[in-house]
Write a structure and sequence with these properties.
The chain contains nine helices and no strands. The chain is mostly helical and about 160 residues long. Helices cover about 75% and strands about 0% of the residues. It folds into two domains: about 70 residues; about 80 residues, no CATH class.
Length: about 160
């Protein structure tokens, strides 16, 4: 997987325990960079520092940079939410759980209904408040305009 957290975890697998804390600390400069160019520059610094000792841990990022770099298009507050949440993974886990318990569905509609109900149950549990959420909402409104306003309106009606 190519989200920031999974990229980090994948890189950490190749780093010895004694170097892990320093390696992880150095990598913060990459994913906390203000923009893609700065992130790439920090990745080059990581490569100079750690590339010989842990070539795969670094090359993994270089090889997947095109997939990670769109992350930098978003403001820092939005990025923080994006790389610290596993909402999609949790939702997919619930879908798998529901579909594994029933191996055959009589129709596509019955499967869709089951997934809809699973979605409803999962979203009821989404109560975590994010730091700077008001600012994130403002940034989403600026970035996505009418689309975000419409989604936000739907959310307040339920």
């Amino acid at each position: 997987q190519r989200c920031v957290i999974h990229m980090l975890r994948n890189s950490f697998k190749y780093v010895s325990y004694k170097d892990l804390k320093k390696f992880a600390s150095d990598f913060k400069a990459v994913y906390n960079a203000p923009n893609e160019a700065a992130g790439l520059s920090e990745l080059e610094n990581i490569k100079e520092t750690w590339g010989r000792k842990y070539p795969y841990a670094v090359s993994n990022w270089e090889n997947n940079w095109e997939d990670v770099s769109p992350f930098f298009q978003f403001p820092e507050d939005i990025r923080r939410i994006m790389y610290t949440t596993n909402i999609i993974e949790g939702l997919n886990r619930q879908y798998r759980k529901v579909t594994k318990t029933k191996s055959v569905f009589p129709s596509d509609t019955s499967l869709e209904k089951m997934l809809y109900l699973a979605s409803q149950n999962v979203t009821k549990k989404w109560t975590q408040r994010y730091r700077n959420w008001d600012q994130v909402l403002n940034q989403l409104t600026v970035l996505y305009g009418e689309r975000w306003t419409y989604v936000n309106t739907l959310d307040t009606k339920s």
